[in-house]
Amino acid sequence: MTAWRFFPVEVRALRRLSPTFLRVTFTGDGLDRFADNGYDQRIKFILPLPGDGLDHLPTGDDWYAQWRALPHERRNPMRTYTVRAVRPELNEVDVDMALHGATGPASRWAETARPGSTACLMGPSADYDGEHGGVDYRPHDDDAGFVLIGADETAVPAVAGILERMPADARGEAYLEVPSPDDRLDLRKPDGVRVTWLAREGEPHGERLIPAVREATGRILTAGSEKQELEDVDVDVDDLWEVPEESGAGRLYAWLAGEAAVIRTLRRHLVAECGVDRRAVALMGYWRLGRAESVA
C-alpha cells in the first residue's frame, strides 16, 4: 500500500474567486479515498496532452522513471498545487489556481477548462495508515506561540488551508501579497490571527511583502536574539525548500512561501539578521521568476 496514488478526474465546476484566483472542483470515482490532511497539503496536478489526453501516463510503482523515459512530446506536464478542500462523500476535491495568463501548461489548461475537462491528480491515499508527506506547516506543537506567515498569490491557497485548521486560540499575523486589491478573499481563521492583504499593483514581486515581514518581526521578536551563520542559496540553480524535521523552541514560528528570490531575502532577514532558530522557520520557494517548475 503506497502513501500516494493517481486519481483520474474531470472538472465538475469552475468558480472565479477574484481576478487572479480560480477554484476548480474535480470529481472522479476514486476521490472518496482521497485523504483529507488539510493545512498546506501538496499534490501533483497532471495535465492532458492535446490529442492524447492521459493515454501515455504511467501509474505503476516506477511511474516516475517511466515518465522520464518517455519522449518529451508524450510526457504529460505536471505542476504542484495545494488541496483546498476534500469532500469524499461527494467524490470531490477543490484546487484553487492562481492565474497569470497563458504562460505555462497549467495556466493554459485553466484558460480553456470547462465542466468535463479531464486531468489527473496524484495525492494522498486514505487507504494508507502512515504519514503521507507533503504537509510543511509544522509548528512546535498545538501551542506554537506566535505564528508569522508570509506568502504571495501562489501560496494563498496553502495559507487558506493552514488558517482554517489552526486551533481556535491561535495567535499570529499573515501577510499575503497579491496582484490586485480585488484579489482579497474572505478566509476563515482564528480571531487571534490578523490577515493583511498587500496589493502589488504592478510593482515587482516582494515589493510589499518584504517590508511588511520586516516590520512585523521588528515588533514580534524580543531583543537579544543571536545572529546565525547562514549559507546562501543560488535560487537560479537550486530549489529553496527548507522545512525543519524537528521544531525549534521559541515564541515565533514562521511559514514563508512564494517567489524563491523573495523567500531567500526573508530567510536571510529572519535567520541571519534576527537570529530566529532555523528549526522554527519553514521556507518554500514555490516558483522562480523566469524559470519553469522542476518536477521532483
Write the layout of secondary structure elements.
Blueprint: E1 4-16, E2 21-27, E3 42-46, H1 63-69, E4 78-87, E5 92-98, H2 105-112, E6 118-124, E7 146-152, H3 156-165, E8 171-178, E9 193-199, H4 209-220, E10 241-242, E11 252-259, H5 260-273, E12 281-287
Describe the structure.
The chain is of the alpha/beta class. The protein has two domains: about 5-125, Translation factors (Elongation Factor Tu (Ef-tu), domain 3, Beta Barrel); about 145-285, Rossmann fold (3-Layer(aba) Sandwich), CATH 3.40.50. It contains five helices and twelve strands. It has helices spanning about 65-70, 105-110, 155-165, 210-220, 260-275, and strands spanning about 5-15, 20-25, 40-45, 80-85, 90-100, 120-125, 145-150, 170-180, 195-200, 240, 250-260, 280-285. The strands form two sheets. The protein has a six-stranded antiparallel beta barrel. A six-stranded mixed beta sheet has the order 9-8-7-11-12-10, sandwiched between helices. Strand 1 and strand 2 (about 20-25) form a beta hairpin. The longest helix has 14 residues, at about 260-275. The chain starts with a strand and ends in a 9-residue tail after the last strand. The relative contact order is 0.16.
